[in-house]
Design goal:
- The chain is α/β, with parallel strands linked by helices and 354 residues long.
- It folds into 2 domains: 12-99, no CATH class; 116-353, Rossmann fold.
- The protein has helices spanning 12-17, 21-31, 47-53, 60-74, 91-99, 125-136, 148-157, 173-183, 208-236, 257-277, 303-312, 322-333; strands spanning 116-120, 140-145, 163-167, 189-192, 239-244, 282-287, 292-293, 320-321, 344-345.
- The strands form 2 sheets. A 7-stranded parallel sheet has the order 3-2-1-4-5-6-9, sandwiched between helices. A two-stranded parallel sheet has the order 7-8.
- Strand 7 (292-293), helix 11 and strand 8 (320-321) form a beta-alpha-beta unit.
- Helix 6 (125-136) crosses helix 12 and helix 9 (208-236) runs parallel beside helix 10 (257-277).
- The protein is globular and about 75 Å long.
Length: 354
């Protein structure tokens, strides 16, 4: 038995591979009605990273309890030690995953100094990670979200940095006016991150309310805020807009018809705007994420779609942390993306190459 006990800095894969810690973790999962397979997408993350990205579902208190229970059992020779159950992955792939380095965010000091950047959906997920990255790199952030509570948490996390929060719904013109008022006369960049998923239904099953709501947020929200911001960028003769599309904006096998059509619309809006406003010094690009660990959950309300889409997702890469998407978005927002306009960047771990 290994005498080295895992800690919060240890990867999930190494926790599961440890004869004592793995036993403790599997018991915890079983009590919650889950199995080791639940952790497959995050095996390359450290336990501390899992706490950070879990949105409270895996708390620091829970991690502390796992560490303490593992230490207690390791010190007790009579404590049972069990191997992984036969229906779990074999040890070789787990070991390979454990060897892969965990990505670490590297902040570029001053990259957004002197710039005002508006970020939608800033209360959670990709939007939160993008707002935090811009603020830590010296930018003035106008962070908006429909949740005042999440914005309060963001402001507390970024205390001391230049962050103005606005509780706003991007589908409402009155809310957009308040965003512009908070931003002031100059807006240098806009990250349209706010978005919602559909319920994975096909065209013959999609409900009117699902279609309307998805398009209101994913398309009209992007259009309305960009339309409001562009005059200020035109006056300045410069600006950068990054829209969050999706792999569903590049293919038909990643989501239901409403979400897929909405993200195709975002791609079209991005390219049209880039073409029309490029000569005015305004760059407009989009990222097309693959699987990302956020609080946006997709449910299948269609057996037909579930069978088709889950089959097509057999080559889906492992989900990544929101900060990894923020790295792509902030690159395009910053002057580092100087020669990119109208690009749809697949930030998807290679899914689009499959």
């Amino acid at each position: 038995m290994s005498t080295t006990l895992p800690t919060g800095d240890t990867k999930v894969a190494d926790w599961l591979a440890h004869p004592v810690a793995g036993q403790v973790m599997r018991e915890m999962l079983a009590e919650a009605g889950q199995s080791e397979k639940t952790l497959a997408p995050v095996k390359r993350f450290s336990m501390n990273k899992l706490v950070k990205i879990s949105g409270g579902r895996f708390s620091q208190e829970l991690l502390d309890g796992l560490v303490a229970e593992t230490a207690r059992r390791a010190a007790d020779p009579s404590a049972p030690v069990a191997a992984a159950s036969s229906d779990e992955e074999p040890s070789a792939p787990v070991a390979a995953a454990a060897e892969a380095p965990e990505w670490e965010e590297r902040v570029t000091d001053g990259r957004f100094t002197g710039k005002t950047v508006v970020v939608t959906g800033a209360g959670s997920g990709i939007g939160r990670a993008t707002a935090a990255r811009v603020a830590r790199e010296g930018g003035r952030v106008i962070a908006l979200d429909i949740s005042a509570e999440r914005l309060t948490q963001l402001a507390a996390e970024l205390d001391g940095l230049d962050v103005t929060t606005v509780t706003a719904d991007v589908t409402r013109e009155g809310d957009i006016a308040r965003v512009l008022e908070a931003a002031g006369d100059r807006i240098d960049a806009l990250a349209n991150v706010a978005g919602i998923m559909d319920n994975m239904t096909g065209l013959h099953e999609v409900a009117d309310d699902v279609w309307s709501r998805v398009f209101a947020v994913n398309v009209e929200g992007v259009m309305r805020l960009s339309r409001a911001v562009l005059p200020r960028m035109l006056e300045a003769g410069a600006g950068a807009i990054v829209n969050v599309a999706s792999e569903a904006g590049l293919r038909g096998s990643a989501a239901g018809v409403a979400y897929t059509a909405s993200k195709h619309a975002v791609v079209g809006m991005t390219k049209s705007t880039a073409f029309l406003y490029g000569p005015s010094g305004i760059r407009v690009n989009a990222v097309a994420p693959g699987p990302v660990i956020t609080n946006i959950e997709a449910r299948f309300d269609s057996e037909l779609a579930q069978e088709r889409i889950t089959t097509a997702m057999a080559v889906l890469p492992a989900p990544v942390a929101a900060e990894q998407l923020a790295a792509s978005i902030t690159f395009l927002l910053s002057d580092d993306g100087v020669n990119l306009n109208g690009a749809i960047l697949p930030s998807d771990g290679g899914w689009s190459a499959a």
